[in-house]
Amino acid sequence: MPNFSNHPSKFPNNKTSIFSVMSSMARENNAIDLSQGFPNFETDARLKELVYKAMKDGYNQYPPMNGIPELREQISAKIEKLYGVKYKVDSEITMTSGATQALFSAITAFVRPGDEVIVFKPAYDSYEPAIKLNDGKPILVQLKGSNFSIDWQEVKEKINDRTKMVIINTPHNPTGSVMSKEDMQQLEGLLKNTNIILLSDEVYEHIIFDNIEHQSASRFPYLAERAIVCSSFGKTFHNTGWKMGYCVAPEELMKEIWKVHELVTFCVNHPMQRAFAEHLKNPKNYLSLSSFYQEKRDKFLKLMEGTKFTAIPSKGTYYQLFDFSEITDEKDTDFANRLTQEHKVASIPVSEFNIDKKDNQQLRFCFAKTNETLEKAAEILNRI
To answer: By percentage, how much of the chain surpasses pLDDT 90?
Structure first.
C-alpha cells in the first residue's frame, strides 16, 4: 500500500465548510434548513422548458470556451442598460460554472507567491483558500459596527507595493449590507493610480431592497478599468444547482482568466446557455427580483417580531442576520448547533466568517424559502 502521509495536505488547516456542516446537521435532525443559501421553491417553468427545448434542438456539444455569442450579447446589453458601460461581446465576457469558478479563476490567474489580497471580513468562505492555494497572503479588514461599514483609512494603510488585488462583495454575504456610491468612490480614489486589480463579487446584484441602487464596480470608470465583476444566474433565477455564472473584465485581464478557465472547465452547460440567452430578453425576469425578495424579507421580519432575536433589516441578498444576545450567552456555534438539534431550525453562525472567529452572537438565516417554510421556522423561533 502506498504511504499517503508522504503527500502532506495543501490545506492542513482547512475544515469542512460551515455550509456543509450545518446543512448536513439539518438533514440528520430533520430540521428546517435556513442555513445554506438556496431557494426551496422551483425555478421558472418557462426557463426549464427552454433548457429542454435546447436539448431537443441538438445543442448538446461543446459551446465556445467563453460562452455562446447570443448569451454574451444579452449580458453586454443588460450591463450597458443598468450600469452605463459596454463590454466587448467577444473578448470581455465569459460564462463560468457558477460565480465561485469565476472567482477562483480570477484569483488563480493573477495571484503569485507573496502577493497580498485585501479581503473584507466577514467574507464568503471561498476567497481566502483560493488566495492561499496560489501562495498569496490574505490581508484581512474587519467590517465595522452594526451596519458593517468599511474603514477606508484602514484599507489605505494596508495597501502597499505587494497588494495585487482587493476583493469586494456587494450586496454582501453574510451580512446583507450594501456598499454605497460613496464607498465605491472611496475605493476608486485608493486604486486610481495603482495597478491593483479589483475582484468584485456581485452575485446578488438583483436582490437589493428599499429602493437602494446597486453600485456595480462597472459604474465607476477607474474601477471598471481594473475590475473583474462576477455574477450568478443561479442566484438570480432560483437554480443554484445549475451552477451557471459569468464574469466581465477588460480584455487584457480576461485573456489571463481564459488561460485558467480553459484548464479548469473549458466551457459550461450549452443548453442552459441557450435558455438564459432567451430568458434575458425580458428584463422583467431579473428586475422584478428585488420586490419579490423584499416581500419575503419583510414577511420574515414581521413573523420574527415577537421573538427575542434582534434584527437589522437586510439591505440585499436573501440573508437576514439576527442577534440572539437576549436569549443566551452561548457561543454562536453552540447555539446554532442546539437550535438545529433541539429546535429543528438550522442557521449559520456568523463568527465562522470573522477575523479570529470573533463572536458577536449573530446567526444568519436564509429567507429564500416558501412562505410556508418561513412561517414554520418563525413559529418555532417564537417559542425560544
So the answer is: 93
Pair 66, 287: CB distance under 8 Å:
no
Identify which of 311, 285, 317, 312 has the alpha carbon closest to the alpha carbon of residue 378: 311
Q: Where are the domains of the chain?
A: 4-43+287-381, 45-284
Kindly state the average pLDDT of the residues 98-110. 98
Residue 12's pLDDT band, with cuts at 50, 70 and 90, is confident
Helices (H), the chain: 18-28, 45-56, 69-83, 98-110, 127-133, 152-158, 181-191, 221-224, 233-236, 251-264, 270-279, 284-287, 289-303, 332-343, 371-381
Q: Cβ(310)–Cβ(322) under 8 Å? A: yes
Answer whether 4-43+287-381 and 45-284 agree in fold. Answer: no
* CB of 94 closer than 8 Å to CB of 140: no
Mind listing the pLDDT tens digit for each residue in 60-83? 999 999 999 999 999 999 999 999
C-alpha 88/C-alpha 92 separation (Å) is 5
pLDDT of residue 36: 85
* CATH architecture assignment, domain 4-43+287-381: Alpha-Beta Complex (3.90)
Under DSSP, the state recorded for 11 is -
CA-CA distance, 290 to 209, in Å (whole number)? 6
Is the pLDDT at 135 greater than 80? The verdict is: yes
Instruction: With CA atoms as reference, report the closest residue to 118 among 175, 158, 161, 174.
Output: 158
DSSP labels, 46-68? HHHHHHHHHHHTT--S---TT--
Distance of CA 32 to the CA centre of its chain: 22
> Distance from CA of residue 187 to its chain's centroid?
20
C-alpha span between 78 and 82 (Å, rounded): 6
Sheet strands side by side (includes 116-121):
93-96, 245-248, 227-232, 197-201, 163-169, 116-121, 137-142
Cell of 264: 479548469
Collapsed DSSP state (helix, strand, coil) of residue 78: helix
Q: Which residues contact 86 (CB under 8 A, 6 or more apart)?
A: 76, 79, 80
Q: What pLDDT is recorded for position 2?
A: 79
Residue-wise pLDDT for 187-220, tens only, equals 999 999 999 999 999 999 999 999 999 999 999 9
Q: Which CATH architecture group holds 45-284?
A: 3-Layer(aba) Sandwich (3.40)
Q: What is the pLDDT of residue 17?
A: 86
